[in-house]
Amino acid sequence: MFHENRSAWLNTCHMSLSQIEYLLSWKGYGPDDNTWEPKENLDCPNLIKDYEDRAKARKERKRAAGELGTSFPCLR
């Protein structure tokens, strides 16, 4: 179980086998060490909310610009 702290941040999300997974980037490690983690394994509601807020803002900016945006399946 990943608990909220400053050692990781969420980059993106996707659906895998009908579950939401988030890509975690680990502080002090490179992109090859990023890991996909199911939402059920994460105990970091603030990180998830921050990510979802950023993703929603990106989606709205793309929509306002008339661009076809990427789907964010983890957004409610």
Overall description:
The protein is globular. It has 76 residues and is α+β, with helices and mostly antiparallel strands. Helices cover 26% and strands 33% of the residues. The chain contains 1 helix and 5 strands.
In whole angstroms, the N-to-C terminal distance is 23 Å
Strand coverage percent: 25-35%
Strand and helix order: EEEEEH
Low-confidence sequence ranges:
none
Indicate the percent of residues in helices: 25-40%
Strand order of the largest sheet: 2-3-4
Helices and strands in order, then pairings?
Blueprint: E1 2-3, E2 8-16, E3 19-26, E4 35-38, E5 42-43, H1 45-64
Parallel strand pairs: 1-5
Antiparallel strand pairs: 2-3, 3-4
Could you provide a short overview of the structure?
The chain is α+β, with helices and mostly antiparallel strands. Helices cover 26% and strands 33% of the residues.
